[in-house]
């Protein structure tokens, strides 16, 4: 399709087209509207150019739209181009297309008062004059909104519907009323009369919100339109959905003249002056709410009830007081409004007055001299609170002073036994507290408790108002306990208000050790809520570390509630050792804190273990470079408390802490260098020797047994004198060669088995039920029993078949059990663990394995029963099992019998062997291999950690058997390791080379740390700058507080800024860009050389 612009140029209208384009370029708003030349020509009224464009283009160009959905007809209508509109309509342009704002050309013409264009559009046969536009507005409604009476008359003459509503249910008459279109209103009413609607019914049409035209006129505030509505019969009693009459709308706006007009024009019987809305509010309520005092004065003059109440029991006086409408308040009081009326909460107007700024000063002085108002100063609300309670709670000094001048008792109590001082202290009203305490003659008020036994000091501390606490203490407040046994320090620590706590502690240091009914101190509360700063503060003031009634110290509480910051703060505190020692050996839920950390907060335990590693300063590659490992926290919990509270009847299993790590699968802790060195220390001290001795004693039975099996031909009878050979005539010949060695070996096997029996019996008494649960013990019994039967010819004669079968069982389990012994050694233990995992995988797949074996075994028995290998069901299943391992024997079992015609069912037999080959050697075996390899990869991932867990179990069982004096002799609380020196010498080094993996220690090279040091310097400079800025900020705050002479300062405790500042510093340290750079530098410089 050819370009229309180029076509116009080719037709000889180059100059006109260029002039048109120049004008368009000056208007930047058209640059990105994707407009066509026809849009511009229509807007400029270039009819000839339009005709050229249309003739050279397709029919669709007439209705092409720009980016906002406007057609050329829209552009022509908006610019009042009558000729363009006529031409486009004559060419077939659609007048009913709407743009993105849902506006058709007719809507634009009416809206822009282009009535000539509107006439052309309405005269066109295809124009829908009732077409809905934006928000459902028709051209009639738009005409009313613009007071376009000429257009409205033309539309009605052309048959437009005057009663078609928009999406809000508003009719044209509503729009005319709201827009103040009086001419349009008259046309509509007259048109309605001509078509059967009398004016009174028409003027009272309601929209979807039940609002009449009078409601709309009042909203717009057009007095002339309101008068027109009233003259045409608008009803004042009509209510919209909110149950408001037009009068309520006018009263809310404070439109006094409109209210006067409507009331004066009303001739009905209803009391419209006292009409109520949905909330039972009268016009006076509405005027009172917004302080329209002139309107209120008028309403009272025409009979408004000044004591009527709304649905919440509020009179105009109460409503005016609550909204600080003081002109109305003084007016109502001067008119004799009842001051005894109370709202739903039992508050009179005086309760509300004292809450407002300047309080009672807002009332005229003469009112406060009236006796019926004076009586209200001691009036109580539903909670028993007087106006003085309210003034103290909101901290209005003027109100407090005025009430006290009326001799109001400061000892008045609310229903929960709170005095005004309780309220002032609870909300931190320092100036109010000072005023209340100014004339106090004794300290009874200062130390009186409320319903819960809480004194003002408790309430101030609970909410963290440190200055109020300081004032109360200075005035003589005592450190009493509430009904729960909580002191002010308990409440302050519960909220973590460290500034308040410091004020209390500086005044009374002994209060740190006060207990509540549950035996909790302030430390318990701070720890439970996770306030690390509060805990550190209490520890610095030498707070006593005690157990509560649940046998829990503050450290137990922090650990159980997973308060990581509290635990870390305690670990870094100088009183950490003292905190660690306070626990009960008899409590099942609050054990040693170290064990509790392993269970609940392993990350904190890791930090504690990190503190146990102390490297020496110096060159890390130097031979004398060493690292000290402290094993204090891995010792038996009895070691922590033996100097404090010795417990003679408490026993812990060996390696208690490490066993807890194993129990809760804390692999990251087990792999910690301190734990690994602790186990290595145990191994070098006695583990190696004990395991070698155990292995040696085991070999006393294993080696002779192996010699007997290897040196004697299986099946031949033998005894202590030699080997018994049977001749061809069934006579027996005794072969005495090697008889001495045979006798010695038999005796060693027998003695080893007897010794094994004794050992197992001892273990039964030691382990009791756990002995039965260990499968290895059953293997031991089988080994010793079959070994004794094998060497029993030392004493009695038994059949050779029985002897050798027992020998076969014994030698098998002897060597299998020896394999299990070797898993205790690092070098080969990992592979034995892998073997166990593969066996478990095989056992899990046994179900599939067994059913496949039965399926193919029994089917081969039916098909190949003529062959010896498949002659019985049992033999067939065993042969099938052999075939599963790859020994299919296709030639002998299938091919040759088929060639000799000895295969009973050849077709079915070959189908079965193909199915067997597909299912078993390919599918099943690959499945098992895949599972095994997958498990091996998983085992390799955690092999080292599993080995450590296994070592813990082995050392535990070993220490249970060793005497206590020996363990105390070889056990060490700390060791010094020289990484650059060999750890073992002599036989131990050879054994370690054979059975243990050499642990490679990566040396950290010396590098230039100048960049790291420079980054640290910059970090500290920024830190100092931050500290300086915060000090300046605090100084500015102090200056501001000093300048606040009149107003009540919201004297909140500094805990907010203090705690927020701590959190902010912590977040800044965590997210600091400098820390990221520093971490990167450290990672790079400390990375091991490869």
UniProtKB/TrEMBL annotation:
GO terms for biological process: response to cold; system process. It is a multi-pass membrane protein. ANK repeats lie at residues 68-100, 135-167, 209-241, 279-311, 312-344, 383-415, 416-448, 452-477, 518-550. Keywords: ANK repeat, Calcium, Calcium channel, Calcium transport, Cell membrane, Coiled coil, Disulfide bond, Glycoprotein, Hydroxylation, Ion channel, Ion transport, Membrane, Oxidation, Repeat, Sensory transduction, Transmembrane, Transmembrane helix, Transport. Gene3D superfamilies: Ankyrin repeat-containing domain. It catalyses: Na(+)(in) = Na(+)(out); Mg(2+)(in) = Mg(2+)(out); Ca(2+)(in) = Ca(2+)(out); Zn(2+)(in) = Zn(2+)(out). It comes from the Eukaryota. InterPro entries: Ankyrin_rpt, Ankyrin_rpt-contain_sf, Ion_trans_dom, TRP_cation_channel. GO terms for molecular function: calcium channel activity. Its main location: membrane. The chain crosses the membrane at residues 778-796, 802-822, 842-864, 910-937. It is found in: Cell membrane. SUPFAM superfamilies: Ankyrin repeat. GO terms for cellular component: plasma membrane; transmembrane transporter complex. Residues 719-942 form the Ion transport domain. Belongs to the transient receptor (TC 1.A.4) family. Homotetramer. Interacts with TMEM100. Interacts with EGLN1. Interacts with the scorpion wasabi receptor toxin at the same site that electrophiles but in a non-covalent manner. This is Transient receptor potential cation channel subfamily A member 1. The gene is TRPA1.
């Amino acid at each position: 399709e050819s370009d229309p612009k180029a076509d116009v140029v080719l037709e000889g209208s180059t100059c006109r087209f260029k002039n048109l384009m120049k004008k368009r370029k000056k208007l930047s708003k058209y640059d990105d509207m994707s407009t066509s030349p026809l849009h511009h020509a229509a807007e400029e009224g270039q009819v000839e150019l339009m005709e050229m464009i249309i003739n050279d283009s397709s029919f669709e160009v007439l209705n092409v739209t720009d980016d906002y959905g406007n057609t050329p007809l829209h552009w022509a209508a908006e610019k009042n181009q009558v000729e363009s509109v006529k031409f486009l309509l004559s060419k077939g342009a659609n007048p009913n297309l709407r743009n993105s704002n849902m506006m058709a050309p007719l809507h634009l013409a009416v809206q822009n008062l282009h009535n000539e264009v509107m006439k052309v559009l309405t005269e066109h046969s295809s124009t829908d004059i009732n077409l809905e536009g934006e928000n459902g507005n028709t051209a009639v409604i738009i005409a009313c909104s613009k007071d376009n009476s000429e257009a409205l008359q033309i539309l009605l003459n052309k048959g437009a519907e005057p009663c078609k509503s928009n999406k809000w249910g508003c009719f044209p008459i509503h729009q005319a009323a709201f827009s103040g279109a009086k001419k349009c209103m008259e046309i509509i009413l007259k048109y309605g009369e001509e078509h059967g609607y009398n004016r009174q019914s028409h003027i009272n049409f309601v929209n979807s919100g039940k609002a009449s035209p009078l409601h709309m006129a009042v909203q717009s505030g057009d007095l002339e339109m309101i008068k027109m509505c009233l003259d045409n019969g608008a009803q004042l009693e009509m209510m919209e959905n909110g149950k408001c009459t037009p009068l309520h709308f006018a009263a809310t706006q404070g439109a006094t003249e409109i209210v006067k007009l409507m009331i004066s024009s009303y001739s009905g019987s209803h009391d419209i002056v006292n009409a109520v809305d949905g909330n039972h509010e009268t016009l006076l309520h509405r005027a009172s709410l917004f302080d329209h005092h002139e309107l209120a004065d008028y309403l009272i003059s025409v009979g408004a009830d000044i004591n009527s109440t709304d649905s919440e029991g509020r009179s105009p006086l109460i409503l005016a007081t609550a909204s600080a409408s003081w002109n109305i308040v003084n007016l109502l009081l001067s008119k004799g409004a009842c001051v005894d009326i109370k709202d739903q909460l039992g508050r009179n107007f005086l309760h509300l007055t004292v809450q407002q700024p300047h309080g009672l000063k807002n009332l005229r002085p003469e009112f406060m001299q009236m006796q019926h108002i004076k009586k209200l100063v001691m009036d109580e609300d539903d909670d028993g609170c007087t106006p003085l309670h309210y003034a103290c709670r909101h901290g209005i000094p003027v109100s407090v002073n005025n009430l006290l001048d009326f001799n109001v008792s400061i000892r008045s109590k609310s229903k929960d036994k709170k005095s005004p001082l309780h309220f002032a202290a609870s909300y931190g009203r320092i100036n109010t507290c000072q005023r209340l305490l100014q004339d106090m003659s004794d300290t009874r008020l200062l130390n009186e408790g409320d319903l819960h036994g809480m004194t003002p000091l408790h309430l101030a501390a609970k909410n963290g108002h440190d200055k109020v606490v300081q004032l109360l203490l200075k005035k003589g407040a005592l450190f009493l306990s509430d009904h729960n046994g909580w002191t002010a320090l308990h409440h302050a620590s519960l909220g973590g208000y460290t500034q308040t706590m410091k004020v209390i502690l500086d005044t009374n240091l002994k209060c740190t050790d006060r207990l509540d009914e549950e035996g909790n101190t302030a430390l318990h509360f701070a720890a439970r809520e996770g306030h690390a700063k509060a805990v550190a503060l209490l520890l610095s003031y030498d707070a006593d570390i005690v157990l509560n009634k649940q046998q829990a110290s503050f450290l137990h509480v922090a650990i159980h509630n997973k308060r990581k910051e509290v635990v870390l703060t305690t670990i870094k505190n100088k009183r950490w050792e003292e905190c660690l020692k306070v626990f009960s050996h008899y409590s099942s839920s609050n054990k040693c804190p170290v064990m509790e950390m392993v269970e609940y907060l392993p990350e904190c335990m890791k930090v504690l273990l990190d503190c146990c590693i102390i490297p020496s300063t110096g060159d890390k590659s130097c031979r004398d470079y060493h690292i000290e490992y402290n094993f204090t926290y891995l010792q038996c919990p009895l070691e922590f408390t033996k100097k404090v509270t010795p417990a003679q009847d408490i026993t812990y299993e060996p390696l208690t802490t490490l066993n807890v790590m194993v129990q809760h699968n804390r692999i990251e802790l087990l792999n910690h260098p301190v734990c690994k060195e602790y186990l290595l220390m145990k191994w070098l001290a006695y583990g190696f020797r004990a395991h070698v001795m155990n292995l040696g004693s085991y070999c006393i039975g294993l080696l002779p047994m192996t010699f007997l099996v290897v040196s004697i031909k299986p099946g031949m009878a033998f005894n202590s004198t030699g080997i018994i050979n049977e001749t061809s005539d069934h006579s027996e010949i005794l072969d005495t060669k090697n008889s001495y060695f045979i006798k010695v070996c038999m005796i060693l096997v027998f003695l080893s088995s007897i010794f094994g029996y004794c050992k197992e019996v001892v273990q039964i008494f030691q382990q009791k039920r756990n002995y039965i649960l260990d499968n290895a013990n059953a293997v031991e019994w089988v080994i010793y029993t079959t070994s004794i039967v094998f060497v029993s010819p030392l004493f009695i004669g038994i059949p050779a078949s029985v002897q050798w079968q027992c020998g076969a069982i014994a030698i098998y389990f002897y060597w299998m059990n020896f394999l299990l012994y070797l898993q205790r050694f690092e070098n080969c233990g990992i592979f034995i663990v892998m073997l166990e995992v593969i066996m478990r995988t095989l056992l899990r797949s046994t179900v599939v394995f067994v059913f496949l074996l039965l399926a193919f075994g029994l089917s081969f028995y039916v098909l190949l029963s003529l062959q010896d290998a498949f002659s019985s069901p049992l033999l067939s299943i065993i042969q099938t099992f052999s075939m599963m391992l790859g020994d299919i024997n296709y030639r002998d079992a299938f091919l040759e019998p088929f060639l000799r015609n000895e295969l009973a069912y050849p077709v079915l037999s070959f189908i079965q062997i193909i199915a067997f080959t597909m299912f078993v050697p390919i599918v099943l075996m690959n499945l098992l291999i895949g599972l095994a390899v997958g498990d091996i990869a998983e085992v390799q991932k955690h092999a080292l950690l599993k080995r450590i867990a296994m070592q813990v179990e082995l050392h535990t069982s070993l220490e249970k058997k060793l005497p206590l004096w020996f363990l105390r002799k070889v056990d060490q609380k700390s060791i010094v390791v020289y990484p650059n020196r060999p750890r073992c010498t002599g036989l131990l080094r050879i054994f370690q080379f054979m059975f243990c993996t050499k642990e490679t220690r990566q040396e950290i090279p010396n590098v230039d740390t100048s960049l790291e040091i420079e980054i640290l310097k910059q970090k500290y400079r920024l830190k100092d700058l931050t500290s300086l800025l915060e000090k300046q900020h605090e100084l500015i705050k102090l200056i501001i507080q000093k300048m606040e002479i009149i107003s009540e300062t919201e004297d909140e405790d500094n805990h907010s800024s203090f705690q927020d500042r701590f959190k902010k510093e912590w977040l800044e340290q965590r997210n600091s860009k400098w820390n990221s750079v520093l971490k990167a530098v450290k990672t790079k410089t400390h990375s091991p050389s490869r």
